[in-house]
Amino acid sequence: MDPLRLRPWSADDIGLLQAANTPAMTTHLNGPESDQEVIDRHAKYRRLWREGTARTFVIVDDQGRALGSIAHWGAEWREQPVREAGWFVLPEAQGRGVSSRAIELLIEDVREHRGDARYLTAYPSVDNAASNGVCRHGGFELMGTKTDGFRGADLTFNEWVLDLESLPQSP
Fold first, then answer.
1. In this structure, are residues 128 and 28 in contact, taking their beta carbons and an 8 Å threshold?
2. What is the fold, at CATH topology level, of the domain defined by 4-166?
3. Tens-binned pLDDT, residue by residue, of the chain (171 aa)
4. What CA–CA distance (Å, rounded) separates 76 from 74?
């Protein structure tokens, strides 16, 4: 049995966002959000799931413990529809391959729920070696680097893209 699985975000998962909203966990995201922003983000995850425009998951181990979160949502890249991915893993679960396995599971979900999107994108900070490694592990291609505003400051990030149509068919 796979030791990790993804379960849909629930009303009870706000604590996971609060646990991830620390200076250490948000160093590559221009810092923590306010308490109200975390509450709003939690509500947004639930609303977008109901609307069918985003799929946010909790990464859980074989004991049902929440290790982090991973999601994909509709976006635009180079004037075409894509799915964009984002994730985090709590410090106690980092360095164990959790994000790499979670991206594999997420890619399976994206393939089933991608709509007309051909690509899955991800935009980790250029300084976030772990998340950039997850992109490499997931088969994404590095397309370049950009700087844009995020949480009130400039953020320089890598632009990773996975061509969903080039993937082998699922078993």
1. yes
2. Aminopeptidase (3.40.630)
3. 468 999 999 999 999 999 999 999 888 887 899 999 999 999 999 999 999 999 999 999 999 999 999 999 999 999 999 999 999 999 999 999 999 999 999 999 999 998 889 999 999 999 999 999 999 999 999 999 998 887 777 888 999 999 999 877 665
4. 7
Distance CA 55, CA 107 (A): 12
Residue type, position 116, single letter: D
The contacts found for 73-80 with CB under 8 angstroms, 24 or more apart, are 73/48, 74/115, 74/117, 75/121, 77/119, 77/121, 77/161, 80/118, 80/119
Contact 37, 46 (CB under 8 A): no
What is the C-alpha to C-alpha distance for residues 26 and 37, in angstroms, rounded to an integer?
A: 14
Predicted model pTM: 0.92
Spatial distance between the Cα atoms of 25 and 28, rounded to a whole number of angstroms: 8
